[in-house]
Every structure is written in C-alpha cells, then in structure tokens.
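@channel sequence for tomorrow's demo:
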Amino acid sequence: MTDNRSWDCFVQDKNPDNPEAHETFQSIGEAYETLIDGDKRAAYDRYGPDNGNRPGPSGYGGGRGGGMHPDDIFEQMFGFDGGFSFDMGGTGGGARGRPAPRQSKDTEIEYDLTLEEAFVGKKVKLAMERDRTCGHCHGSGAKNGAIKRDCGKCSGKGFIMAQTMIAPGIVGNAKRPCPNCDGEGKKTREKDHCKKCKGSKITKQKTKLELFIEPGSLDGERIVLTGEGDELPNTPPGDVILRLRVRSHHAFHTGPSGSRDLYYTANITLSESLLGFQRILFYHLDGRGIKVDCPAGERIIKHGDTFFIKGEGMPKNASTRNPAGDLYVKFNVEMPNLEWVKKQQSQLGGSETINVTLPPKKVDQAIPEDKITVVKMKECPTGKTFYDEKEARSRPNKGGRAYYDSDDEYGDTQGPSAQCAQQ
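structure tokens (generated this afternoon):
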C-alpha cells in the first residue's frame, strides 16, 4: 500500500471538484490507523467506534462515518462486496476479527396492484419461504458432540488473501472469507453434519404474512416488515421489503413520481361547453359518482381547457402524513357531426334567419345520493399543465417512474397536453 500523502494526492487528483474528497481521505486515514495498530483495533472491537468517547471529527468515530467498522469504510470506498477487508497487518483475523453483521440480508419483493387498490387500500396476504437458523443444531451445522477441525484451505484463519485492483495502477492485498468454511475457520466432517440441515446451518420455513396497503399509496413506495426475512446463524433476521408497482388505469393516471395528483379527461357536448351543466361527469376510483356543478354563465369551457377539483387526487396517506392530492380534469368538447349540420340547413330552408338548435346535453345518471359527491371546479394555478403520462413516457427517462404497463393497457389517448385555463 502507499503512504498517507500519496493517498491524499490521489484522492484530490481524482476528485478535483469534490469538496468531500479530503474529508473522505481523513475517514480512510483514521480507519487505516486503527487497522494497523493492534491496541487501537483491540479497543475498537471491545468498545466500539467511540473508544471511550474518543472524539472523531469526521471519520468512523463520528460525523460522516456514523460508527462504521473500519473494514466497511474500505469496502464502500473501493467497491468490494460484503466479506472483504484490507490486510493492514492488524491483529484481527479474517471473519473472526470483525463484528458479525448487524442483521441478515433483506428480502425485496415487487408487488403489483391496481390504481383503485392504491386509492382505497388493500389487505394483502403473502405466502413465502424463508431461511431460518436450524432448530435441530441451533445453527452449528453439526450433530451433538461433533468435533470441528481447522479448515484445510485457510488453516483455521477464516480468510484467504487475494490481490485486488483498488484503483487504476494500484493493487493491494485484500482478505476475504474462506469459501471452504464460510469464514468460520472450522470444518465439520460430512458424516458429522446435522441430519436436518445437512450442514448448511439453516432450514427453509414456510410462512404467511399479512399487511395492509394504506389508501393513497404511490408507485415505488416501500413497506417494510421488520424481522420477517431470511436469517443467518447468530444474526438477527433481515426484513421483507415490499415495493409497490401501481399499474396503469384505463381512465385516470397519476402525475410525476411522488405526486399525489390525479388526471382525467372528460367529454362534454357543445351545449355543455357553452351553457354549463350539472351532472355526474365520471365515477371516481372508489366508485363515487363525481357530480360537477357548472352553472350557465359561469364560464365557457373550450376544447382542451383544464380545471382542477381540490382534494380529489390520491387520498392522504397516514404513514407519510402527506396531504391529499388534487384531481385535474381536461375537457374534450364533442363537436356536432355532419348529420346535425344537414338537419339545421333543412329546417332553415331559404330563410336567412339564424335559428340553430344545439345538440342536447348529456343525460345525468340516476344513482343513490350517498354515492354522489357534488364538486365545484376551480381555475388552475398559473403555469400549471395537464400532465400527459403517455407523452412523458416518450421522453428520455430522467429519474421518473421506472415501471409502466404496455401501451395497449393505457386508457387515455385523447390529444396532446394542454395549458390550464387562466383567470
């Protein structure tokens, strides 16, 4: 390995515009000093990162290091997978020279649900199989009375040495857990293996988990079931992490990632655009009929105009405490067809008097009053646009939603996005 000054030059040279480069080097330096000093490393392993309230401005003892093990700092900096630690000549040996993992690996599951289910919430039952410490041998992998012998591959150290490229032109010796004994340093003869787990120390366990997806959950949100994941011997079990994937809807769609707003396109007749209307414009995701009150003379709705209904987006989520979103409605004005024009011409005859009968308004639907919510539309804030999900999907991905269903399941294909109506 190179000395501290060389490392400082290397870090600063490779990261000239990174203000954290020097701080990063300090973290490495503190970890390095602990690893090469037998007394310091022993104190670390016994007392932890503070070492009796030892001050640490930025390294593993405090600040940005956050109490990490020195080996872990090197692993994060140089990209090694779990189980690596640099050979700095310290007294600690292999897997036995560093603390055991705080918990086993988490299990991540992607769970698909409809937009309706995300809106109203859903009770979920999961049947899964997980690893658990063998109850017969209590995680030893051996039968009672069996004698474990030093591993022949690592000579009982629990690790093997390997040359690894740390950075371009820099090669260092690193140690990693011995694959023959899984870093334990001891091996059990095959005939002495536990009959239940066959020496693997773990067994498969079938379980059923129940959880409730709260109303207003969004695409990409995660639900954590603490301690319900796989378990390794002498290690707390990991978590089960459910990542929600909300499928596209045939009529409604959501906004950009993290937005609680909903978007809907409604069709109205020419009469309704000019003379207003009061009818159930659409059915919401929870089955309610949304009756819009737009009196005659209040406004003229032009084709492509957008208005919003306060609080009718995705509902408030109890876990995140985010307020309810709004519902943005874009209007398509249905123009009369050619048959209507011919009918007006025949009624007028040769008269020059203009007396046109507009196409009738749409008939309101009869549903129980307790299933109806009467709302008033409001003008959109200045600069607010109708979010067109299909158009957004055609643009290069810049960190937005990563999951979409196929195009044939996308419901709304009505025209391009439009500016909201201005006051």
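heads up for whoever presents: Confidence is low (pLDDT under 50) at residues 1-8, 52-66, 79-98, 395-423.
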